[in-house]
Amino acid sequence: MLKFLKKLSVEERQLANSIKNITGFYPGNIFLYKMAFRHRSVASELSGGIKDSNERLEYLGDAILGAVIADYLFKKFPYKDEGFLTQLRSKIVSRENLNKLSEKMGVGKLLLIDKDSINNKSSVSGNAFEAFIGAIYLDKGYNFTKKIILKRIIKYHVDVDELESTELNFKSRLIEWAQKERKTVEFALEKEEGKGRNKLFHVNVLIDKETKGKGVDFSKKKAEQYAAEDALKKLIG
Amino acid sequence: MLKFLKKLSVEERQLANSIKNITGFYPGNIFLYKMAFRHRSVASELSGGIKDSNERLEYLGDAILGAVIADYLFKKFPYKDEGFLTQLRSKIVSRENLNKLSEKMGVGKLLLIDKDSINNKSSVSGNAFEAFIGAIYLDKGYNFTKKIILKRIIKYHVDVDELESTELNFKSRLIEWAQKERKTVEFALEKEEGKGRNKLFHVNVLIDKETKGKGVDFSKKKAEQYAAEDALKKLIG
After folding, report:
1. Is B58–A193 a contact, with Cβ atoms under 8 angstroms apart?
2. B82, A59: Cβ pair inside 8 Å?
3. Which chain A residues have a beta carbon less than 8 Å from that of B201?
4. Nearest in space to A37 (alpha carbons), one of A147, A127, A144, A148
5. Across the interface, do B55 and A81 touch by the CB < 8 Å criterion?
6. What is this structure's pTM?
7. Which class in CATH covers the domain with range B8-165?
8. How much of chain B is helix, strand and coil, in % rounded to 5?
């Protein structure tokens, strides 16, 4: 057994081994990872009134993951514009995708949680995944975390090309939804701003004559997509 | 004169010296910085139809800046919860604050732009600032960029404690706004989810009886703040 493992409790040793299995490395500071996998339902209160749950680490991990994925897509797609990159990144770090990722990698299983105390379990797994990234970052630094995310997570568990090709068409999704719900959909140009190639289109989408989403872009088509995405978020979350 | 400066054109040398003045370092790859300061109104089209403007770098810089500030606040405020950290970060990286920062540091002055071709100049300076961060990151890596942001930007140009203490009270700002506009404001509890200390409050804010913002939090007070913030964004941008 590795020397540093001996200093840990049985539970800590199990956690250290699980992390090694998932990522290929042994954690340095085990306390960070214990916190990453502690849901607020089983956390205790610290001085200052805050809890030693994984939520602060989740906030940090979310930002670090965002930066790493931004960098990765920037380099992977040198001829795509920032709208494309932003959208693809949103898909990768969407709650839905992170939940899946977390379950697939076995990260969700490490989470300590009082299941009776919560109603909505839908995002706890993805949240723990982000907290885990936050813990790795504090423990090992940015470059190491980036390597783990790219080599251990993206490479094996995220099919970026598939995510790209199945690019969400928000406009057609909204229209489908509206047909099912028997509502009308309308895209309306609210205003144009600027001139020539720098003209900005402001598009509203109306559901049953009521504005439900807004989109702005230099391309009218994209502005409609953004408006549809905005409306979908409000209508079906 | 430094040897590498000799290889640059007169304009590039000026840019390199300006960057040295602002940040304390000479750029390695001057082309990244030229792109960071090239607004789309003066950019040319590359193959693939995208422009060699600063927008892709802005996307990247935004993510890197977000990560660095998340890390900084996480460590500066060990006893504040993620809601506080998220809100304070939003204030630091708000378009308004980045525009100010950019002008104060002289970054805005480096921007090449065709002023006649654009109507809305309000955010170009802050955007260039983000693109500049993106260029530094690609040129020098994360740890260097973090050092520049913390030691050269936050330390001299951002009063985090003041930003914290003048914490925006969105609820009172919304009420003020509504009084001026002669509209009614109402906060309504839409639903409660979960039990005990894990109860989530869903709050709607209604302006003239119409829902204009939503907020969710474990604290009802905070949920109201978030709802007010959401409404303010939609109502006054």
Report:
1. no
2. yes
3. none
4. A127
5. yes
6. 0.73
7. mainly alpha
8. 65, 10, 25
Interface of A with B in 194-223 (CB under 8 A): 194-198, 200
Task: List every span in chain A annotated with CATH 3.30.160.20.
Answer: 170-236
| ipTM of predicted assembly, 2 dp | 0.72
Fold of A170-236: Double Stranded RNA Binding Domain (3.30.160)
Q: Least CB-CB distance to A196: which of B117, B141, B200?
A: B117
CATH classification for the domain delimited by A9-165, as one of 3.90.180.10, 1.10.1520.10, 3.40.50.880, 1.10.357.140: 1.10.1520.10
Residues contacting B51, CB < 8 A, separation 6+: A81, B40, B43, B44, B45
Residue with tokens 């970060």, as numbered in its chain? B89
Question: Amino acid identity, residue A205?
Answer: V
Cβ burial, residue B159 (10 Å; 0-12/13-18/19+): exposed
CB contact under 8 A, A71 and B137: yes
For residues B58 and A82, the answer to whether their CB atoms sit within 8 Å is yes
Residue of B nearest to A69 (CA): B63
Residues of A with Cβ-Cβ distance to B55 under 8 angstroms: 81-82
All residues of chain B having their beta carbon less than 8 Å from the beta carbon of residue A195 are 117, 119
The one-digit pLDDT tens for each residue of chain A (237 residues) are: 677 788 899 999 999 999 999 999 999 999 999 999 999 888 888 766 778 899 999 999 999 999 999 999 999 998 888 988 988 898 899 888 899 899 999 998 899 998 877 766 668 889 999 999 999 999 999 999 999 999 988 888 888 877 776 556 788 788 878 887 888 899 999 988 877 767 788 999 999 999 999 988 878 888 888 899 889 888 876
CATH code 1.10.1520.10 region(s) in chain B: 8-165
